[in-house]
Write a structure and sequence with these properties.
2 copies of one chain form a homodimer. The first copy, chain A, is an alpha/beta fold and 396 residues long. The first copy, chain A, folds into 2 domains: 136 residues, Alpha-Beta Complex (Aspartate Aminotransferase, domain 1); 229 residues, 3-Layer(aba) Sandwich (Aspartate Aminotransferase, domain 2). Chain A contains 14 helices and 12 strands. A 7-stranded mixed beta sheet of chain A has the order 2-8-7-6-5-3-4, sandwiched between helices. The longest helix of chain A has 18 residues. At the A-B interface, helix 1, helix 3, helix 5, helix 6 and helix 10 of A face helix 1, helix 3, helix 5, helix 6 and helix 10 of B.
Chain lengths: 396, 396
Amino acid sequence: MSIAKKMKYSISQSSMIRKMFEEGIQLKRKYGVDKVYDFSLGNPNVEQPDEFKKELIALAGEEIPLKHGYAPNAGYPETREAIAAKIRKTTGVKMTADHIIMSCGAGGALNVILKSLLDPDDEVIVLAPYFVEYPFYIDNFGGIVKYVSTRQDFSLDLAAIQDAIHERTKAIIINSPNNPTGRVYSQDEIDGLSRLLDERGKALGKRIYLISDEPYAEIVFDGLTVPSVLAACSNSIIAYSYSKTLSLPGERIGYIAVNPDIHEAADWIGALILCTRILGFVHAPALMQRIVARLQDVSVDVLVYQKKRDLLCDGLARAGYQFEKPQGAFYLFVKSPVPDDVEFVKLLLKKNILVVPGSGFGGPGYFRIAFCVDDATIVNSMAGFAEAIKECGLSS
Amino acid sequence: MSIAKKMKYSISQSSMIRKMFEEGIQLKRKYGVDKVYDFSLGNPNVEQPDEFKKELIALAGEEIPLKHGYAPNAGYPETREAIAAKIRKTTGVKMTADHIIMSCGAGGALNVILKSLLDPDDEVIVLAPYFVEYPFYIDNFGGIVKYVSTRQDFSLDLAAIQDAIHERTKAIIINSPNNPTGRVYSQDEIDGLSRLLDERGKALGKRIYLISDEPYAEIVFDGLTVPSVLAACSNSIIAYSYSKTLSLPGERIGYIAVNPDIHEAADWIGALILCTRILGFVHAPALMQRIVARLQDVSVDVLVYQKKRDLLCDGLARAGYQFEKPQGAFYLFVKSPVPDDVEFVKLLLKKNILVVPGSGFGGPGYFRIAFCVDDATIVNSMAGFAEAIKECGLSS
């Protein structure tokens, strides 16, 4: 064995999402793209906003000194100020450019935050069902994952969180709108969580940080707004990505926003900048930093996703599936008609439908549908979904 | 203390290069940009090749499905095939697209390689003077750095490397052309190193991998070519970046090339792809992946750098400085006229000249000049360099 011992195990445990993605490529080769219904990956098919396309074309032709050169590790000051101004305006929090560190997407941001924070064997609370990468991110820096389930409707279970906190607890990661459930935590839930972390921290003589992973913050439905974690909780830190807001997941652009009132803010900022550098990110991609500075008030058309959600939810409900209707993001977490979600996912695969077993998200008995796909994919998959549930003897 | 205990120490030890960079910004504000001679950072001032500019403008306007979407974690197959084809052509090594994993620059590549490889307390040999980030990268994954000095002329000291290898040794990192010395290792040196690693590995019943950090591979002078590590050593793996080849350090685009003959190649590739994902890189920036696929035979005009090197070396030699003339990259590692390099760097700072103390690179008694700057900066700095050495009583 030559590579790290841990790797072989990690590879075997690795993301079922990607496995479905690869499987999808094979199926599409065999049956044709329009005969395979691939709901496996959160790879938005929605076009970038026109403003983005125009800015990219404009910027491509502009002469700027050191246009593609190194930026300060934290990012271009003008980009960071544009983001800080947006946060000030929308939340009232006294954010400055110094509190913004540009990142390679939210995934990069979370790794930088966790490396800055964790000593070996520190615990981080992760709420199940969870985004599959969190346990890896925490383990990267010697942290221990403490899983806490959400309630039946995927809302926060504050009592369970309270029970999970002890002297090694350093942080909790939340993700709202949530992948894989589409849940948006209410103002009351966020306020309650903030109070709880504050009280438990005081009782333990320490701080427990609220790490909020917010790549879907702009993707919310039915006129809902996402409560501001920064406004509700002083010991909070945000990982944001433009991947979904501007439909650019491949470009790896996002940021970290540190609450100006966070305990030991200067240490945090110093550590985050250092970790951005020494983890090899160096800084976020230059061209994209310049573009997002100009597009703070732009996002994809959320109604497009809302329509897809409705199309999917209506169809599946008619077929007899059970689920909580998503309030945001572009995922639906559906109860598997049979207890073994992996088995049901294999049944769907026979209908050329690709979804991901809930087990991969710490939510066994469910499966995840990523509905950032063509409307036609949703519509044409419905026959297969109906057949599958019927074969389990469970259709409506 | 809230953040990780290690961070506070790391921040205090952190890069002197960046400190000089920040200092430079202050000095420039005070004296004006043309009165400050900033040689602190390897941020190429040389323009991108015209072909790059044209491709960027063309690509900005092109309609491509999922143009900015997620790629497979290893990168776009067509980009990887273009790179593999180039390597096959230039080295004769039977490289395939499967052996190429796109990365966020060489810094990202090295982190992914080291995470894939290292178990806690594994040792990695680093040759001093060294690129300042290597010790951080190794420490990120619990590895231990074993420093081995190069010889007086910065060539490989094979006997010292041999002595440093023992049962915990897992790899050696080399960097040719070298930052900070500009040294290019000869075919004999690379062949000798390869044999040594092979023999010592066999004696110890294991493999010792050769990790070759090659961001300057195309920046070589006087018609020199850099010997292929892939052709010379089967247990080798390359970290490459387009930062210097195309003058794009801010865009974070590079790749990992795994030797097709490496021990347990499939495990390596699986681990590298997984680590790309779980370290939060996910994959390399999409637009840049598409561009570099089209620009495999393009690079900046190396003669521009060669001219700068000559201008600098001639001037400093006249002033009485001692150094090995760089064969590649855009750094000159100069002997400090006084034993304490930090003291001499402070003296240069009084002349508005910013360079980096050799101590930061594990090369005390030297300082580094990054000559990727305007010719005028080089020419106009010469008076200050001459004054400084004169003040040490050591001018020619």
